[in-house]
Amino acid sequence: MSELLATANGDKDERSESKLLRDRAYTLLTNHMSTIREYGRYVFWKNEDRKVCI
User: Is residue 7 included in any domain, yes or no?
Assistant: First the structure.
């Protein structure tokens, strides 16, 4: 039964390769999205239809 529970909970090891890859991808995506939003605020500052207030 403990093997089933371990499989259901996933790998809790902090050094798990899949967890590291997921965390790196999330960080990279978040950084790129904030950069895009920052540039978009200046590019579309005169266009009210495209301007997004955050």
Answer: no
Q: How far apart are CA 54 and CA 37, in angstroms?
A: 9
- Strand spans (E) along the chain: none
| Model pLDDT, residue 8 | 61
How many domains are contained in the chain?
1
Structural tokens at position 6: 């371990």
pLDDT tens-digit readout, 4-31: 666 666 656 666 787 888 899 999 999 9
Domain that residue 33 falls in: 22-54
What's the pLDDT at 48? 72
Structure tokens at 1: 């039964």
